[in-house]
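Notebook p. 47: complex prediction with heme C.
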Amino acid sequence: MLDQQTNPHPAPLGRLAGMLGRAAICAVALLISLMIAAPGLLFGGGNNRVDEQLTARLHAVGFTGRIESTLTQRLGRPINRPLANIGRLLWFDTITGLKGDNTCAGCHSPTNGFGDSQPIAIGIDNNGIVGPDRAGPRNMRRAPMVLNTAFFPALMWNGRFSSSSDDPFDNSAGFIFPPPEGSSLSGEPHLLVAQAFIPPTERTEVAGFDFLGDNNAIRGEVIRRLNSVPAYRRLFGQVFPAVAAGATISYEMFASAIAEFEFRLTFADAPIDQYTHGDLSALTPSEKRGALLFFGRAGCVSCHSVSGSSNEMFTDFKEHAIGVPQLVPQLTNNQFDGPDANQDYGREGFTGDQQDRYKFRTPSLRNVAVEAAYMHDGAFTNLVAAIRHHLNARASLQAYDPAKQGLPQDLAGPIGPREPLLAALDLRAANPVKLTPAEIDDLVRFVRDALLDPRATPANLRHFVPPTLPSGNAPLSFEFALTHSTHRPATKRQRARG
Ligand code: HEC
Ligand code: HEC
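Predicted complex, structure tokens below:
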């Protein structure tokens, strides 16, 4: 009686049960429920429907997961380790900052993927600390991570330094910079070598206002200082025989050392890359669902693209207006835009075209988990908020309260006007994407964990900080946070190259 009452099977299955007996129906039921609940268990290797869909999708969007391995071939040679090491020392040495209190690492810090430790960069007149306690007058934007910039055909938030061929390794069509440099740096072998001509000339970043003269005069002074340090002459002499024979270290040598160190900071072998090579266990089920949203219904890949000249960096390297709240620092040494000097016009500042107002270059999403803040001005201090903003940019901007973002005090005041930002919104950002809380969670996990190369975590970048500097200058003081708890350990292959 009890059996009949609880038997859930309709007539045909019931007859089958009569023929095969109770043991068999239990087996069939188990099989059916296994097929529904855990097809991976039956068919082995996690080769389930999600993997089939995701593999097909990755193929369709042109993602190979092999970008890192193309570096040597596109460079036409292996990385020059001694030169990269000189670049590393220079990165941390305030000697090339004429003001004497800042250098690349003050803004591009190993505590945050060689990106900013602050929502908006602090340059000259800083307190010597790099991390949450850094203080001083603000510049205008957040310093992006330099990891993987070897593959960036357009640099900066407004894309103002770019390779006309759309390939940073190819100078044949010229490198475009704003005046006064214009196309004069096109002879350099890589866009990053050309870019390294710029930072030491920036008055509010490192140079200060005491030294008089144009950009070339500043470069000349930087080089004069470098040549006055015997340890740098010895180091450059080991790479450039001419220097060993008595020639001066040239600015170009300095720039190539910096760029070589940046090539060295290529960390583009994340779980998503390993998954795409065929290791289906490299992503968790949640990350796989998040990936399907990212490359599908959530529309992320239309700007954070992975094919062609995007070099699989999760950006199209183009500028879009997505309505990011405009933070206004209490104290700045830069000139903000607009009648009340409380705006950043973005790409328009470079092109002069009003259509480009509020447009910023799509950032790469590789290794974003290690950033201290998000967007061009760090308006969001956590990744979840940055991603949620995209799902309904209008509502996010309208509801934004700078006092509730966990921002440093001097950035928590009133923001710039919202109305013009809303009017300029890209259609894709203006149309809300509807996701359930569980889907948002999957998407965040995918962006945070599946795009993170374990070599990029603060714990693994720490070893780049030199204990002492060739110039004898006092090193900056870095505040390393505790290790990221979510990252996977580096694989043997990654450690070998790390
Ligand atoms: C005062 C802080 C500061 C210092 C010092 C600094 N940078 Fe930057 N860097 C920035 C900011 C801010 C940006 C983005 C600026 C923009 O988009 O307008 C940037 C952008 C870059 C980029 C482009 C990254 C991308 O995603 O496009 C590279 C490369 C770079 N810096 C290299 C260097 C090097 C090399 C040095 C040292 C020689 C250096 N920076 C010194 C703040 C700094
Ligand atoms: C219309 C193009 C576009 C689409 C679609 C888009 N993004 Fe973005 N994304 C941008 C731009 C542009 C920025 C930088 C905006 C700024 O700083 O003003 C950005 C910034 C980000 C950032 C911050 C990264 C950093 O380093 O600051 C994250 C994270 C991000 N996007 C994730 C996503 C996700 C996830 C999706 C899909 C839900 C998505 N984006 C869809 C253009 C887009």
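Notes: Strands lie at 129-130, 154-155, 161-163, 175-176, 319-320, 360-361, 477-478. The pocket of heme C (ligand 2) is lined by residues 298-300, 302-304, 320, 322, 324, 360, 362-363, 365, 368, 371, 374-376, 383, 386-387, 390, 426, 428-429, 433, 443, 447 (CB under 6 Å).
Next step: compare against the earlier run before touching the bench.
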